[in-house]
Amino acid sequence: MAAAGIGGLLLTTPAEFTYFTGYLTRFWESPSRPWYLLLPVEGPVVAVIPAIGAVLMAQCAVDEIRTWPSPDGADEGRALLTEAIAEGVAGQGPIALPDGPEDVPRVGFSALADLQRRLSDLPGAVHLVGDGGLVAQLRARKTPEEIAAIADICDIAGRAFARVPEVARAGIPVDQVFRSFQALLLEEGADWVSYLAGGAGPDGYGDVISPARAVPLAAGDILMLDTGAVRNGYFCDFDRNFSVGPASAKAESAHARLLEATAAAFDAARPGVTMADLWAAMSPALGDAAVAGRRGHGLGLQLTEGASLLAHDHTVLEAGMVLTLEPAIETGAARMLVHEENIAITEAGARWLSPRVQGSMPVLEG
Amino acid sequence: MAAAGIGGLLLTTPAEFTYFTGYLTRFWESPSRPWYLLLPVEGPVVAVIPAIGAVLMAQCAVDEIRTWPSPDGADEGRALLTEAIAEGVAGQGPIALPDGPEDVPRVGFSALADLQRRLSDLPGAVHLVGDGGLVAQLRARKTPEEIAAIADICDIAGRAFARVPEVARAGIPVDQVFRSFQALLLEEGADWVSYLAGGAGPDGYGDVISPARAVPLAAGDILMLDTGAVRNGYFCDFDRNFSVGPASAKAESAHARLLEATAAAFDAARPGVTMADLWAAMSPALGDAAVAGRRGHGLGLQLTEGASLLAHDHTVLEAGMVLTLEPAIETGAARMLVHEENIAITEAGARWLSPRVQGSMPVLEG
User: Fold this and answer.
1) Using CB atoms, which residue from A105, A108, A182 is nearest to B186?
2) Mind listing the pLDDT tens digit for each residue in B218-233?
């Protein structure tokens, strides 16, 4: 922070609270209340939070907790926060909000404007600025404990994927498969399932972000399930493809090329190479059938975080980074297959966190 | 909008996209990409979105879809959005972002500042303003179809709650109960489970936002589960209390007072009364043991939305509103019980959406 010329960080999101203090709750689902964490370049770390969070926050790594009865219909803690900033950061420089590529502050539009006014009215006029991706860079390099947590949820999801044949076969509607698969994830140890997407269709699927529909699986379909399940606050993010009955030669060949692309990126991954290098490593296997878009991203306390596997993303890999490798390939008009694995970067190269798929697609009863 | 003097709305959140266009996806879990929906006071509704969303958005209620390949590491659609605003809103007034009490725009800090600069550079200088709660007020009055959707997920959760004795008894760790209960919700028809909180302890629990811990249930505990499950984009939000073995007279009496408080607010609820009136209706039953804080809130496409049952919230109830009634009562030092039901306001009064609890707490095997 000192090197970046900032006086402190103002943090507002679930991932930021968990990262810096260990505070973990699903209560963020309710947008009623703002939560603020002030990390000055020097001095105590102060949580300025709704009273309802005080009991849990007292068990976390903060020096001071200041609360207000929220929601209160009035200033929602902004006077209290301004006071904490005036005491803790006065004269130390501007306050930075994380503004890396995947950072979205959890503050209302008019609340943010009001806070900016209050701070600029302070003696010495404190300004809010972006952190230039400082927090994102810090979070991108995981500790061994963080990598173990991601490996844990990857194992859980791997066991759930292995049980998909129990819940998916020709005739079962895709929305039912989605429900059952989430139950399998929970049964195998996920705390909750923040993300499940997928698709199903002959030789592939048209889009991978729609909710599941009540359309029965049919022989010849490829079913893809892509999950971001959570354990102890950390996400996995990988998918698996399944063939309903025997796969066509076209689908099997496309799947093989995805595995090849993933392996090529894995082999290339080590400290010093760039995200763009991993992107490029996948290209020979995908050829002209490559689907446009990124081919992976950071992963951790968010489903997606940090840099992207894009041709023009020159972020340099460092030991401790956790990434998804996620190539996609066309199999026909508006049809594609996507494969995804999770890896960690070590000094010696990459390490699989998800249980790597090898060989042909698992076959569901057709 | 015209009455409020604004030229259009700029919408950025999942609930806003679903409400105005029907667009429904879990892809929002990834914060990589911003999504913009422009509703001018006159003229076409334009979605300015990442290319990955085009297939799904084409099935929704928008007039135009403009896409960019996202993430792109560059302006992330802001040039495209500025162009759409210049064409669609020029001269019609400022652009409003929702800023009701539970509205948080999904835009990065520096991205928002950059967008504001681009818009103020347009001929005629378009400004971003808050909507003064306009969208929140609109969304608070549900259509019959929306109320039916909420009733549907309430029924699903009601069936799952009725099955809790299958998965919870003395000796089973609370985190395991949380996993199993989420699986029951899915089995009964929830699309996904966005929220589950709760607590367990002798005669009550100390806080209701912590994640579940691996502590076994014990005879004499009261177990509370509070869920925001989702079906077709709509949430329920209610809880149930269970006694592990027979409840103490103190716990049973506290529970009875919560039911009494809930019934009093239900009886008072009709168009024309205020949120503060419902808050006050609960007070006689709770007496001095009332826990501070709001006693309910709006519900719909978010777990919590709109006004709060607070002593000073004078929002007037209207037919179509959907609310939670959520009194809390102390049962000892740092111990409480919370009860919650969901209701809809009709011309004739209130209607239960959750399957109202009556009588004593269900008893789990002790």
Assistant:
1) A182
2) 999 999 999 999 999 9
